[in-house]
Write a structure and sequence with these properties.
This protein has 412 residues and is α/β, with parallel strands linked by helices. The protein has three domains: 238 residues, NAD(P)-binding Rossmann-like Domain (Rossmann fold), CATH 3.40.50; 56 residues, no CATH class; 70 residues, Structural Genomics Hypothetical 15.5 Kd Protein In mrcA-pckA Intergenic Region, Chain A (Roll), CATH 3.10.290. Strands 3-2-1-4-5-6-7-8 form an eight-stranded mixed beta sheet, with helices on both faces. It has a five-stranded mixed beta sheet with strand order 9-13-12-10-11, with helices on one face. The protein binds zinc ion.
Amino acid sequence: MTSIPSASRFDRQERLSIWNQNIIEGSCVLIIGIGGTGGEVAKNLALLGIGKLILVDMDSIEYSNLNRQLLFSHKDIGKNKAKTAMNVIKKRYNSSIEIEAFSEPIQLLPFRIFEEADIIAGCVDNFLARQFINENAIELSLPFIDSATDGFFGQVQSIDSNSNACLACDSPPPPEETRLPTAPCTLVGTPRMREHCAWKALYEFHTLNNREPDENSSEDALTLTHLANKIARKYQFPLFENKEVIQIVSYHVPSLITVNAVTSGIQSQEIIKTLFLKKIKLFGKKEVKRFKSLIQTHRFNIPDLTIYSALTGNISSYDLLRDPECSVCGSSSIYRKALHTVNVNPKSKCKIIFTVLKRKYKKDFVGFKGNSLIQNDALVEDILEDGDRITVSSLNDDEERRIRIKYKTKRG
Ligand SMILES: [Zn+2]
């Protein structure tokens, strides 16, 4: 016989002095990357009773994922990670939460999911994806909690676009021994380690070719080496041998479930605390006063950067200062400027968007959605959704702008 629960499912967490289950239940978290860390974060938030999860991962489940990715089993090999995670979480952990799953590359996601989210959890192992999430978070002033793991080390960085460093900021680095070579904090600033030159070369490769390099192509390896050595020479790092760069950027880092579990635990906790801080204003004055006094008593704090070493057992936190000149979060960044809106009929060709801009600014433009070039002759409705934001670059000078697409007529 099934016994009837006598208390709320969330009774034990609601006993905490700093807790507000209504905030958790009224929140939407966008989790990008549903692997070792992202799967754990999704499970944690589902068990905590989050209102909505948006799960994004374009990858399929592989046999080598099964040592640490708790949502997947042998029968799931070959299936999409985000969609499988959605079904497993609903069935196994919490059937009452709302979940949406996307298997597209993040650069092609509808922009509305970033607007719907209260916070972004970045759990990707990909340099370009990390950069793309960072830019969207800054543009929407959305809190962004990023994590990375590498063997025995894990790190969590909390980004508040108005107060601390973003992933592209050239802020003073944490101590050398705690830095992860595969999770560079600096994406577009000065490379602090030789490996960062390889990641920057990958970014340039992507911009030039609009695709990922093929790890089996000697031509791609040569191009990447050439790009990386240009950067290495500039910043006085030892030059790369042929194929070394492609080995760095296509290298699968060693991963441990124990490190994923600790890192995702820290990341989930920072997400909850950030949601409390962000949403507490929605509640009555009395509740806000009580919360503020508890924050002071308990020295409630969201560290900019937390690093966990499974070798020493240490968990350390660091401050990361914002760089006012940062190309992503700095005051002159395109992500900080007011958006220009272009009204288009979805049945038109993309050429019309660039013609409108040319008329307004007297310049020729090309457009990008994420890192994908928007072809002039493509139909708007084939590649853009109502409300999408794209970046346009002038062909005459270095000027870039962000524009928002508004459909004149809704698709039937
Ligand atoms: Zn920045």
